[in-house]
Amino acid sequence: MNATPILSNPLLNGLWELRLHGSPRGEAVPKAKLRSAIPATMPGSVHVALQEAGIVSDPFYGRNELEQQWIDIQDWELSRTVTATAADCARARQELIFNGIDTIATIRLNGKLVGRSVNMFRQVVCDVRGVLKPGRNMLSVVLESPTRYAQAFAATAKGQIRPDDFIWQTGEKRPSYRTGIRKVQCHFGWDWGTYLATSGLWQDASLECMDTPRISAVQVSQTHVGPVGAPKRVTLDITVHLTHPAAVTGTVVAILMGGPMPADDRRERAVISQSGALKTRAGESTATLVLEVENPLLWWPAHEGDQYLYYLSVHVDTSSGERSAETLTKLGLRTCEVVTTTDTAADGSPGTSFYVQINGRPIYAKGANWIPADQFVERCTPAVYRHLLESMVEANMNMVRVWGGGWYEQEVFYDLCDELGILVWQDFMMACGFYPDLTAFTKELAAEARYQIRRLSARPSLALWCGDNENNTGVAHWWKTAGTQDSRMRRYTKVIGALAKVVAEEDPDRRFWPSSPSNGAISDTPDSPNHGDVHYWTVWHGKQPFSNYLTVKPRFASEFGFQSFPEPRTLRDCIPAADMNPSSRVMEHHQRSNDGNLMITNTMAREMLIPKDFPSFCWVSQINQAMAIRTAVEHWRRLKPWCMGTLYWQINDLWPVASWSSIDYHGRWKVLQHAAARFYAPLLASLIVVDGVLEAWVTSDLPSALPLTGTVTTMTWDGKTVGRFPFTMKLAAQGSKRVLTLPLAQLTTRHEAHQLCCFITVTAPGQHAENFATLVPWKWIGLVAPRLSMKLVAAETGVALEVTPSTVVPFFHAELGELEGHFVGDWQVLRPGTTYRLPWVAHTERGAHMPTVAQARAQLSTLSLWDTVAH
Predict the structure, then answer these.
(1) Across residues 423-440, what is the average pLDDT?
(2) How far apart are CA 641 and CA 867, in angstroms?
(3) DSSP assignment of 217-255
(4) Per-residue confidence (pLDDT) for residue 260, from 0 to 100
(5) Spatial separation of the C-alpha atoms in residues 163 and 471, rounded to whole Å
(6) Cα→Cα distances 370→93, 184, 392, 403, 633, Å
(7) Cβ neighbours of residue 206 under 8 Å, at least 6 residues apart?
(8) DSSP labels for 538-574?
(9) CA quadruple 616, 619, 623, 625: dihedral sign
């Protein structure tokens, strides 16, 4: 028996040669620079290869993006040599495997056609038996223009694909036929993204030459036996998908292990193992095994319990004495339900719940929407993923929605979600488009879904599958000229039905949600707040005040957002100094939402004093964004259990841009990300003015009842206490309750409303919460020069800043020069007489280091709202 599988050239990653294929198209092509091949690192993209070769400049700087529109109308060729041995060429199975090609490609080995790709989201496997030869082999991948392909497909789509112009804020436009190609939809531009339609090998490629079957997927279904949330046993039904050109007999072996991986002592740490007889036919086959796990350790979402992971190893031993390559699958043992039960709203109208329940415990979903972490996949490194996802957990989040206009994420993303306890709402990759119901399209979509479900379904973090982003909304409300309502619904139902059928076949234990937003069925009213999930954009796109959020009572808000600018140093990297102005042509190029900069500016004038300069404008735009989302989230958390989730738009950016993100392109936390750490805390204290009354609320996501003591305090801005209103109570597990009501007339007997700031503090065993409220808009408050003392001290994790104010200090901010990192608790409204300890978190995943106290002291700078306006 060969304990180590025989596997030649396992990866074809690294350097390839890139050249134009065929004649150049368009006048903008730099023909002289493209006469010879250039190096290209794969996985990667043509765009980055051209930039690294000095042929094009940084597309994110200034308006360079517009000068690079010629790239995606060309055909390109990637080539390299592949070495094989005589033994390789004698193996029963010889396959070139591409885990992802972006997007339209023809694959040749030694000049012979061996494969074709028309879908970025599917693996391509090329049988090279009889083509592969001992020694050097020439491998060629011709990447066809994605934009020309999409346009050509549209011409054959019986009128079902119409051009949709992408219009830059500075007036340029370009047609897009993106619904005609199975590729990242936001590569054709979005209201936060660039029009840079990439091509390349975006995932690993390999050559496998073996006599054993290829294990193409391992799927696991769990049955928990015993009390919900405390099972005595978990039964694992394992399905192993195998591919081989000939029939094979032998044994399939599964070993379940516990503890951290990778490690050398896997067998010693085996929890249980099982083997079964294997007899396959030529082509695709399956084998099944059952494992029983006694006294299992459970997986929980972040902040709900531990994220215990088991590791399932599967391999095949053939009757001829060969061993296949091992697959290793992470498993978290948990039950997961999306609960949708009928109920009744307070006004008597019918409703339908929508929430995730893990191990029998209802989970209030707290998180954000996720777009690709970069326009270019090679820049989406494990460090980038770790920084973003750990930032989510640090901000008390427990769910991320992988939005349907991007890509199915890379393995490292799901690995980290499993490890960190972040539940994944997984869209299928369709967004804001009326997709064709042609048989060729739905067949390709179904194959894509089957591949992705088999790839991801064992993940404990994966909470649900969702058909698309906003397409049911579009069919119901937007695309009135695309046939009658009945014909639109029939066409849409056929597309979504293709997905629903595959989910039912491949992952029947996991919920399929037809669209987002949705009431749970394809309908004319997908966005009813009483049913399912909603996307609420009335405040941003409808230009309504932040208080409009308080009029809405959704069951689950899966999209809502407000824009801000990145911080000044992010903009300095991509905007010339002369264009540092919200209305400059270059700055508006870095804004993709229609009238976005105008809306940021107008809202700022409504809520805040006009800032004194452009850096202050950037900071105040972020404060405004944070106050908008805080208004929504605190209100919707107070509504629990009626509302059971908020996922704001969006956590990240894929290029430097004014957007709805809470973390900018360089991984720098905006004010919103800091605010999220507070409004998503397990124990939330909040204040809200309703009909002339200040209401104090306490909301808990904790699984046990809590005895609480708290105080509402009114203070003048210069630090004098005007009133103190203590309270005590016991809050039910996962409860939300109004604890105090104070008429404004009572609070303003000696001071006018603009002279006061209100604070609430709450303590419970192991918990502390603090919050603030103003009684007038921020632009009218009696702002005073801050008085505070502060010092940098050594802390267990490195460095911390201790700050003690004697006045109210709105939105205190501290930073350490150009060091990448943030202070925990930054951008708070500081309460006089309280010492705040703010530990420094170095963004080590972005290359930063932890400074010494002396180094930090030399670079420390601070500001607050006072510093953003002229005096």
Answers:
(1) 97
(2) 41
(3) EEEEEEEEESSTTS-SEEEEEEEEEEEESS--EEEEEEE
(4) 56
(5) 17
(6) 39, 14, 11, 6, 18
(7) 9, 10, 11, 12, 96, 97
(8) TTTTT---GGGGGG---S-EEE----BPPPHHHHHTT
(9) positive
The pLDDT tens digits of the residues spanning 494-525 come to 999 999 999 999 999 999 999 999 999 999 99
CA–CA gap between residue 848 and residue 693 (Å, rounded): 47
In order of 9, 422, 662, 709, 808, the CA distances from 673 in angstroms are 44, 16, 5, 28, 22
Token pair belonging to 96: 């070139």
pLDDT mean over 379-391 = 97
Q: Please work out, in degrees rounded to the nearest 5, the angle formed at the alpha carbon of residue 342 by the alpha carbons of 341 and 347.
A: 135
Return the structure tokens found at 537.
């954009």
- The β-bridge relationship of strands 423-427 and 399-402 is parallel
Is the model's pLDDT at 1 over the cut of 80? no
How do beta strands 399-402 and 365-370 pair?
parallel
Tokens of 356: 């995730």
CB 341 within 8 A of CB 362: no
Look-up of token digits 């010629």: 70
Q: Which pair of tokens denotes residue 361?
A: 């415990």
Task: Supply the mean pLDDT for the chain.
Answer: 95
Beta strand residue intervals within 280-428, DSSP E: 283-294, 310-318, 327-331, 336-339, 342-344, 350-352, 355-358, 361-363, 365-370, 399-402, 423-427
> In Å, what is the CA distance from 259 to each residue of 174, 253, 529?
53, 20, 43
Q: Is the dihedral of CA 742, 743, 749, 752 positive or negative?
A: positive
At residue 259 the predicted structure's pLDDT band, cuts being 50, 70 and 90, is low
Distance between CA atoms of 191 and 596, rounded to whole angstroms? 9
CA dist., res. 152 & res. 525, Å (int): 34
Tell me the C-alpha distance between 428 and 452, whole Å.
Answer: 9
Q: Is the pLDDT of residue 269 over 80?
A: no
pLDDT digits (tens, 9 = 90+) for 760-792: 999 999 999 999 999 999 999 999 999 999 999
Residue 717, classed as helix, strand or coil, is coil
The Cα–Cα gap between 327 and 455 comes to 12
For the stretch 535-568, pLDDT in tens is: 999 999 999 999 999 999 999 999 999 999 999 9
The pLDDT score that the predictor gives to residue 261 is 47
Q: What is the pLDDT of residue 386?
A: 97
Which H/E stretch holds residue 821? Answer: strand 821-823
Which is higher by pLDDT, 483 or 115? 115
Q: Which two tokens stand for residue 64?
A: 């360079």
Question: Could you give the CA distance from residue 725 to residue 761 in angstroms, rounded to a whole number?
Answer: 11
Q: What are phi and psi of 861, to 5 degrees?
A: -140, 150
C-alpha–C-alpha distance, residues 371 and 383, integer Å: 16
HEC string for 450-516: HHHHHHHCCCCCEEEEECCECHHHHHHHHCCCCCCHHHHHHHHHHHHHHHHHHHHHHCCCCEEECCE
- The mean pLDDT of 816-829, rounded to a whole number, is 97
Residue (of 145, 118, 137) closest to 21 by Cα position? 145
Contact indicator for 182, 121 with CB cutoff of 8 Å: yes
8 Å CB contact between 760 and 770? yes
Query: Please, are residues 610 and 869 in contact by the beta-carbon 8 Å criterion?
Result: yes
Is residue 11 scored above 90 in pLDDT? no
Which pLDDT score, from 0 to 100, does residue 692 have? Answer: 94
Please give the pLDDT value at position 796: 87
The pLDDT tens digits of the residues spanning 225-256 come to 999 999 999 999 999 999 999 999 999 999 99
Burial environment of residue 363 by CB neighbours within 10 A (0 to 12, 13 to 18, 19 or more): buried
Which residue carries 């004319």 as its tokens? 524
pLDDT reported for residue 483 = 84
DSSP E strands in 691-777: the ranges are 693-700, 706-716, 721-731, 736-743, 756-764, 767-774
Average pLDDT of span 353-359: 98
